[in-house]
């Protein structure tokens, strides 16, 4: 489909100028905002990552692709909230990208999804020091701490958060996710759960809070 491919290409080319226009055209065709994210924007940024990985793309192209994607997601975000309506508070979630890691597109999607499902979400942002995560979780009596990491060099920080939380006797369940994380890694570091994507995070939390 030509319109969808145009959006895909806009992320690949880091075309910030046209992407909102193209997204609007797709919305006019009644494509759901969530489907634009899941079926076009995420596959596109994954392709950017693949090109970067194989050194066909370099940092400027990686940044431009991410910026174009972010523009589109920020634009679609208010529409996503409407799709699911508002629900009552089901629990408090502290979410953060761990220390040393500035990737936040995936974490933001998870936060958005959880808000839509009626969780009270406190988003601490990216590159968040372990101490801040623990401090906020205590202060807000968090039920869940959700951690994101996108790099093999930063995922180890998740283990530190889990250790610290245990030391401090926090009651919060800790869940992890991000491109480099696997179910097995989550188990190894003693996390309470792992979600492969934003779509499955609400279910995971629901099962942990039951
Ligand atoms: Co960078 N980056 N990046 N990057 N980047 C990766 C992660 C990389 C895999 C690219 C590659 O080489 N193929 C690679 C890491 C290699 C590794 O460690 N294995 C990498 C690198 C090396 C770097 C730099 C070091 C590059 C440099 O400077 N030389 C640098 C790091 C800086 C730092 O953090 N200190 C860097 C910088 C950047 C940008 C700033 C340009 C940009 C980020 C912009 C931003 O986030 N605001 C960027 C991007 C865009 C990527 C790729 C291409 C795409 C990431 C993304 O947003 N994906 C990425 C390649 C890739 O992952 N394929 C790459 C889309 C997003 C929706 O998916 O985040 O996986 P994701 O989230 C999913 C799930 O994982 C899950 O749900 C989400 C939605 O379904 N999920 C969770 C995520 N968090 C969750 C938390 C949960 C549950 C589920 O809670 C429990």
Automatic annotation (TrEMBL):
Cellular compartments per GO CC: cytosol
Parts of the chain that traverse the membrane: none
BP terms from Gene Ontology: homocysteine metabolic process; methylation; tetrahydrofolate metabolic process
Alphabetically ordered keywords of this record: Amino-acid biosynthesis, Cobalamin, Cobalt, Metal-binding, Methionine biosynthesis, Methyltransferase, S-adenosyl-L-methionine, Transferase, Zinc
A single GO molecular function term of this UniProt record: cobalamin binding
Domain B12-binding, chain residue ranges per copy: 90-210
Domain B12-binding N-terminal as annotated: residue spans: 1-88
Function: Catalyzes the transfer of a methyl group from methyl-cobalamin to homocysteine, yielding enzyme-bound cob(I)alamin and methionine. Subsequently, remethylates the cofactor using methyltetrahydrofolate.
Family: Belongs to the vitamin-B12 dependent methionine synthase family. Belongs to the methylamine corrinoid protein family.
UniProt-recorded name of the protein: Methionine synthase
Native organism: Herbinix hemicellulosilytica
Part of the whole protein covered: 635 to 844 of 847
């Amino acid at each position: 489909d030509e319109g969808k491919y145009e959006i895909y290409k806009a992320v690949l080319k880091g075309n910030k100028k046209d992407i909102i226009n193209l997204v609007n055209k797709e919305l006019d065709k009644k494509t759901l905002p969530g489907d634009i994210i899941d079926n076009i924007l995420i596959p596109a940024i994954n392709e950017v990552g693949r090109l970067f990985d194989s050194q066909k793309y370099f940092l400027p192209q990686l940044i431009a692709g991410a910026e174009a994607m972010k523009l589109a997601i920020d634009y679609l975000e208010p529409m996503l909230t409407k799709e699911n309506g508002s629900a009552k508070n089901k629990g408090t979630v502290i979410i953060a990208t761990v220390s040393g890691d500035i990737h936040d597109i995936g974490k933001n999607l998870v936060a958005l999804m959880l808000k839509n499902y009626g969780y009270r979400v406190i988003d601490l942002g990216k590159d968040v020091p372990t101490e801040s995560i623990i401090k906020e979780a205590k202060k807000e009596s968090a039920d869940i701490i959700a951690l994101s990491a996108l790099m093999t060099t930063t995922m180890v920080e998740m283990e530190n958060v889990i250790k610290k939380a245990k030391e401090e006797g926090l009651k919060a369940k800790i869940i992890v996710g991000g491109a480099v994380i696997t179910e097995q890694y989550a188990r190894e570091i003693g996390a309470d759960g792992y979600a492969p994507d934003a779509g499955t995070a609400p279910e995971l939390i629901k099962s942990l809070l039951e």
